[in-house]
Amino acid sequence: MSSTTLTALLHGPDQKGLVARTAAWIFERGGNIIHADQHRDEDYGVFFQRVEWMPGDAETAQEMAAFRAFATTLGMEVRIARGSDRPRVVIFVSKQEHCFHDLLLRWKAGELPCDIRCIISNHNDLRRDADHYGVPYYVIPVTAATKSAAEATALSMIKADGIELVVLARYMQVLSGDFLEQLGRPVINIHHSFLPAFAGAKPYHQAHKRGVKIIGATAHYVTPVLDDGPIIQQAVAPVSHRQSVDDLIRKGRDLEKTVLAQAVRWHVENRVLAYANKTVVFD
Amino acid sequence: MSSTTLTALLHGPDQKGLVARTAAWIFERGGNIIHADQHRDEDYGVFFQRVEWMPGDAETAQEMAAFRAFATTLGMEVRIARGSDRPRVVIFVSKQEHCFHDLLLRWKAGELPCDIRCIISNHNDLRRDADHYGVPYYVIPVTAATKSAAEATALSMIKADGIELVVLARYMQVLSGDFLEQLGRPVINIHHSFLPAFAGAKPYHQAHKRGVKIIGATAHYVTPVLDDGPIIQQAVAPVSHRQSVDDLIRKGRDLEKTVLAQAVRWHVENRVLAYANKTVVFD
Amino acid sequence: MSSTTLTALLHGPDQKGLVARTAAWIFERGGNIIHADQHRDEDYGVFFQRVEWMPGDAETAQEMAAFRAFATTLGMEVRIARGSDRPRVVIFVSKQEHCFHDLLLRWKAGELPCDIRCIISNHNDLRRDADHYGVPYYVIPVTAATKSAAEATALSMIKADGIELVVLARYMQVLSGDFLEQLGRPVINIHHSFLPAFAGAKPYHQAHKRGVKIIGATAHYVTPVLDDGPIIQQAVAPVSHRQSVDDLIRKGRDLEKTVLAQAVRWHVENRVLAYANKTVVFD
Amino acid sequence: MSSTTLTALLHGPDQKGLVARTAAWIFERGGNIIHADQHRDEDYGVFFQRVEWMPGDAETAQEMAAFRAFATTLGMEVRIARGSDRPRVVIFVSKQEHCFHDLLLRWKAGELPCDIRCIISNHNDLRRDADHYGVPYYVIPVTAATKSAAEATALSMIKADGIELVVLARYMQVLSGDFLEQLGRPVINIHHSFLPAFAGAKPYHQAHKRGVKIIGATAHYVTPVLDDGPIIQQAVAPVSHRQSVDDLIRKGRDLEKTVLAQAVRWHVENRVLAYANKTVVFD
Questions:
Q1: Do the Cβ atoms of B230 and B195 come closer than 8 Å?
Q2: Is the CB of residue C82 less than 8 Å from the CB of residue C60?
Q3: Do B231 and A210 touch (CB under 8 A)?
Q4: Do D105 and A98 touch (CB under 8 A)?
Q5: Best of D108, D127, D254 to disrupt the A interface by mutation (most A CBs within 10 Å)?
Q6: How much is the ipTM here?
Q7: Cα–Cα 20 to 30 A to A225, which of A6, A156, C22, C212?
Q8: CA-to-CA distance for A183 and A159, rounded, in angstroms?
């Protein structure tokens, strides 16, 4: 028996018998399904599945290739990973440090099955902390004049190191559409409001001005449209007239930390599929 | 001693010693403060207070008049009520019945210290239920052609009966600015989204399309700008990709019921002050 | 094609290939799986599955029998139902009416796919309301002396009418172990605390005395041990020193309503499996 | 004018006019009340007040002494502090590090207005982290044989440094009644269940075995009776049959962090009064 599970994320046009055919394929090759979950989007006629199984005797690389070929015969797109894989991640950060510490501490505690390769920041502030966590810290300053060059530097570092996921942990620069296109990999951002309310700058100030009784935070994939990408997770907390903007900011930090960590965890566990500017999360 | 408490809601320009002067005024007249709560809005320099006390020997009408005069000397606006007062309320409803039943059942259970005088609806559907609850039910049909006349009819009924609060319990007609102006009394509406997200029509459809992971409901005072008035209370519930629009609607009903009932309860207990398109809620 | 789905709830000793074999069985007979969810309890080595499918051309009664036979070959216990089935339910109630109204209103709104056959109460108080809802209302008074006879009366009514689920909607009598044994059908109770805290009488008084900052409600299957059966659902609400016992009772009513309704809904949708004094809820 | 506010926490036998007399005392000496909140416990006839004010011209030490004398004339016990005071705190920790990091990071971010003087641990594991935070770290190993001596060592360190609050951040030793008595200062503990459910050891294992659908964490003052002291704050999170004990432990860490931090914050901001094994929290 293999020493690791395989996890496949499938999606494509819905058709009869998909659940049975996937299960049969795995069973016939000596595998055993550990978890299987699926979803049909009635509006779009799309079928989604996450299936995790213990493969039989075959070598896993070979089994992954075989499953990819099988998915093609179903007309499905597929991502497949070993349970032992640890996606390579870079964290972008500016001066706000709460999400940065939260991600690093969870990672060191074993809560995030990924490989945090390095930190990229437009400021030097968190270098000493990154050193303490034992993670390389690179400063790429960004000004209006240097933005394009800074993005090119980041891009080449990401590609050179085979990074598979970019996490913006309160990174205070907007990534250009050009950068995102050349990147071609998922980027998760944390926005400090319950989107779509209060998109854009200073959401806690906007929330305070509007007098809402609940604040929130939203983790989403980044698209070229600001704060508009597929939402992965959201959380909220009650507030009252007593809370100042500073109180909202403080309360919101707790939301931002847990929401971003949850989204990253789901992503690196291969639980998230984005489509039609929404997500399916097999939690 | 009086047999009832008095509750005053004060607000006005902040100044030194307001808490002490109010407390002293009550104490010197033989009263005993039962609850007192206050708030300062630093942005606007406004002081807010809710104070509930057991007055001394004087007749309550006289004491209320004396407190009003006292508040004027402080430059404060004031609303004052007896604990035994039960504000006269009308509920507007269309065909959606969950908030209607919820309010009536809470009222009959003693949770809402008010006097629900009647139901006004643009449909006949809930007449039998209103009869069962023992509350008069008036149908005022509304079409584009008759809207103005319908509003005039409602207005004269409200004024004739001394109604002090209008509650829109999923009433599916937009009240005109003209109606609101002539009404001159508070109107509480329940909107089925976590405003300011998804204002306007079909918010659950909007939420489903956007792929949010949390839905909400908002109780607010009605102003001439649709879904933009001061927010009194909000609540939310988590949703996932599995929920259809119908599921959101069903889940949302529970939010709408509790949020509207809470807002009405706070209002009739004299706990809400609106200003600057926000509310102070002394809960 | 059949006009209704089938839903099976399976459980039994875990073994390799169960997911695949069930899926294959359905597929080979021309059925199409709509939802499938499964769980393995590692402690007990038990496999659980809920599968909902649209069967092929065969008559559903025949298909259900065939699936039962198939489950036996897997060594699994099974419950199977048509999507169009509406389990027959009786609601037991005393004088507390909030859960009673809540269940009846949700049922009339189409939220609970069951057939509420009648209300049994030890008091006459809610007769007029039951009449309004159009549901038969039977009074079976209970005293220490008559308890045994009262239970026998209820038992014969339940059996005569083919009742499949008993719901205790704040019914203030403890059912005897003898009654439960002879009944042999599931009984869902709502307890007004977050069990296992505050089992037994007057849980809100216990909670107030202990000074907890959160209160709760618990829906569970009834076993001969008081307030100890498998928990189906729980919910909580924050409280503070300001809340009196009466406030806890009022706040708790909202929890009790939603928790009981959720548990009943899950049960009649065939989503709940009890084992080892716990539940698996395929929500 | 003084450069700092004063905050008094009062409690004692309820009597007429207390709110007015406190307010008048402050006003007459040129002070201005910024926040005032009070509570009456009807069961015990006790009055509680938290009042925060900007004093007039007098020196604050003198004003504090005068207020203490005034409180005595009211028959009230009082604690009074300057807004600029930062209580001296020691954190006890073992090997579980999540609450330790959370408290230290919040403290460095300015969320906890106190002075964390040192860490005391029965293990050496977190020394490097304490060094990184710049906080002294003392190891006092504890075995059954050395427990009494270890407690004496801790006690003398606490007294020598004028520590005012002890925080047990998942410290895995039970403090003896003798230690608590000699300590004579508040000790806040975090228990990883929603007390009173699952007191004692391994609460997540207990919760998993009982099959609850909600887990919790509780911050409370320590008394000689294990896990029984006055509760300051609680929080909960939903769980399902899918969660293993390890999942509960991971989910629970987030609860423990926020609940303990909130309790410590309230305590050092002079918002908590304990009585009758309960707390009043003026939040």
A1: no
A2: yes
A3: yes
A4: yes
A5: D254
A6: 0.95
A7: A156
A8: 8
